[in-house]
Amino acid sequence: MRSLHFPRFAVFSCIYLCSISLILAQDHIDLASFSYTSSFERTLENTNIEAAIQEWNFNMDLPLVLNNENALIFGLSANTINVDLSPSPNPETDLYATILRLGWNTTFNERWSGTFLVMPKVASDFSSGFRRGKQIGAVVLFTQTRTERLKYLYGIYGNKEEFGLLLVPILGVYYKSADNLFEADVFLPVRVDLNYSLGNTVSAGLRFDGLGSSFSIQTAGFNNHYVTRASNELYLYGQYKITPSLLVRGKFGYSFFRNFKVYDNEDKIDLSLVGIFFGNDREILNRDLNDSFQFKLEMVYRFNLIKNNPKP
Fold first, then answer.
1. In 3-state terms, what secondary structure has residue 274?
2. What would the pLDDT profile of 159-200 be if each residue is shown by its tens digit?
3. Which residue among 44, 170, 178, 217 has the highest number of C-beta atoms inside a 10 angstrom radius?
4. Is 124 exposed, middle or buried (0-12, 13-18, 19+ CB in 10 A)?
5. CA-to-CA distance for 189 and 307, rounded, in angstroms?
6. Residues in contact with 255: Cβ distance below 8 Å, sequence separation at least 6, in sequence order
7. pLDDT digit string, tens, across residues 7-20
8. Which residues, in sequence order, are CB contacts of 168 under 8 Å at separation 6+?
C-alpha cells in the first residue's frame, strides 16, 4: 500500500522560483546575479567520511516592455552543485541545472496584475548531455497592489520533477517602510528577506531560502538513478552598494534539514504538495550529509524602477 509521507524538511520548492517575484512586487529588478556557496565539512551519516558542498549560481532576467500594461519575460538560470553521493565508487558528483523562463506579465487594473510563465529545465550530472534530466514547469502569479509600499502575491507553481509531479501554492508580500530604511520581501514557501539600511551604501539583513530540486544521474554505482536535493538555509548578511546598480553581499548561516537522497529511476511518487509526499514508499540508496554552517558570496546587478521615493 502506497503511503503518505511527511518529510523532515520544511519545504520542497524549485530554487528558481526565487527570481520570479522580482518582476512582480519590488521597486527594483535584479537583472543579473552570481553567487558562490560553500558549507563547512561535516561527516556523512553513520560514517567517519567528511565532505562539504559547494554551489555556483547564475541568474539573468530580461523583461521586454511592450506597453504600459504588458511585458514579455525572458530569463535564464544555471547552477552547479558539488556533493558526495556515497557509497558510489566515485562519490564526488557534480550536478548541473539550466532553466529558461518564458512568459508574460500584464496589468489588469490599478490593483491587480498577473504573470504567467513556462520554465523548461534540464537537471542532471550531464554524463548523457541533454538527453536526460528534462523537466517542464509553469507558474501563475497574481499581484495585488495595496499601496506603493505594500503589495501581496498569490499563485501556484508546478513542475514535472524526476520523482513525479510537484505543486507549490505561493503566498507573498512586499513592504517598504515610510523612511525607506526597512524592506521585507516574503515569497513563501521559498524565501523570506528582511533588510535594514544602515546608510546610503550599507545594509544588513536576515534571509531564509527553502531550496529543492531533482537531478538525473548516471554515475558509477548509481546508473539510471536520480537525486533529490532539499535544504532550509538561514543567513545573516551584510550588503554593500558599489554603485547604485552593483551590489555585493556576504552571508553566513546554517543549512538545516538538508539532504541529498538517491533513488532508483523507477521509484516515483504520486504527488508532492508543499513537501508532503503522496504515494511515497521509495528506498533511499545513499548516506546523507549532516547539516552544517555555510557561507555565501553574491554579486547583483540591479535596475531601479523608482528613482524617487515611493508615495506613502
1. coil
2. 999 999 999 999 999 999 999 999 999 999 999 999 999 999
3. 217
4. buried
5. 30
6. 39, 231, 232, 233, 291, 292, 293, 294
7. 444 344 444 554 55
8. 11, 12, 13, 14, 17, 156, 157, 158, 189, 190, 273, 274
Grid coordinates of 21: 517575484
Percent of the residues in the chain that have a pLDDT greater than 70, as a whole number: 88
Cell of residue 235, nine digits: 543567513
User: What is residue 120's three-state secondary structure?
Assistant: strand
Q: Is-contact 121 134, C-beta < 8 A?
A: yes
The grid coordinates of residue 236 equal 545573516
**pLDDT of 132 higher than 90:** no
Residues 6+ apart with CB under 8 A from 271: 164, 165, 167, 277, 278, 279
- Record the pTM: 0.88
Whole-angstrom distance, CA of residue 304 vs CA of residue 285: 47
Find all residues with CB under 8 Å of 70, minimum gap 6, and list them: 104, 105, 106, 107
How many Å apart are CA 239 and CA 297, to the nearest integer? 10
Beta strands 165-176 and 271-273 are parallel
Q: How far apart are CA 152 and CA 112, in angstroms?
A: 10
β-bridge partners, 221: none
Q: Are strands 202-219 and 191-197 parallel, antiparallel or unpaired?
A: antiparallel
Q: Which residues, 6+ apart, have CB-to-CB distance to 219 below 8 Å?
A: 85, 88, 90, 93, 125, 127
CB atoms within 10 A of CB 280: 20
Q: Tell me the per-residue pLDDT of 24-36, one tens digit each, with 9 for 90 and over.
A: 455 678 899 999 9
